[in-house]
Amino acid sequence: MLTQILSTRTLALASVLAIAMSCWSFVPVAEEPGKVALLVGVNNYNRRKLEDRPLRFAERDVQELAVVLQEQKFTVRTLTGPDATKVNIEEALTGLLKGPKKEIVVVAFTGHGMQLPLKDEGGNLVRDAQGRELSDAFFCPFDAVAGEGSTMISLTRLVERLDNEGGDEPLPRRRLPRRFRPAPRIGQAVAFG
């Protein structure tokens, strides 16, 4: 069991680094790019339904990833535990993206996630051309309320923001393997392997 947990953590960290390093290969050698990272980890939550399911390694994973990224000359901001509230995450992201556009932006979340219906800014459900409800993946910050997307970080909105503010050119879309996508419901394990 411990070997499986360690190999799963190693695989997840290696994947984040591989994506970040693949971005680096497109940067001209002549100038040092702005390399920034926001790393967020939550083991224990303070709201019903989430507090019943504590995690063991989310915060440690963020600290270990921070060391690796700092060795690669990234400016790293970490938020863990009670500091990883939605407001703090959004403020940290704003601070990270302030100023000139960055060459490489890494955002990593470790903690619970949920799949919920996608809503527009007015709170209305978003539907596709056939009228089917669309859904979105959300990261649960420390103060998230289970099932309420407005208290969570929308990964769709995050990617849109990074495309608009994060770098000189948006990265090509890459669909993550199933093992790296958030679990659809609280308590449901993400499949690895």
Total helical segments: 4
N-to-C SSE string, H for helix and E for strand: HEHEHEEEEH
Rg, alpha carbons: 17 Å
Portion in helices: 25-40%
Strand fraction equals 15-25%
Structural class: alpha/beta
Instruction: Please give the largest β-sheet.
Output: 3 strands, parallel
- The number of distinct β-strands equals 6
CATH architecture: 3-Layer(aba) Sandwich
Tell me, briefly, the overall form.
Answer: globular
Provide the low-confidence segments as ranges.
1-32, 173-193
Task: Estimate the mean pLDDT confidence.
Answer: 75
Short description:
With 193 residues, the chain is an alpha/beta fold.
Features:
193 residues, alpha/beta, Rossmann fold, three-stranded parallel sheet, three-stranded antiparallel sheet, 6 strands, disordered N terminus
Describe the structure.
The structure is a single chain. This protein is α/β, with parallel strands linked by helices and 193 residues long. It has one domain (2-180): Rossmann fold (3-Layer(aba) Sandwich), CATH 3.40.50. The protein has helices at residues 2-24, 58-71, 86-97, 155-166; strands at residues 35-41, 75-80, 104-110, 113-117, 135-139, 153-154. The protein is globular, with a radius of gyration of 17 Å. The two termini are 14 Å apart. Mean pLDDT is 75; it is low at 1-32 and 173-193.
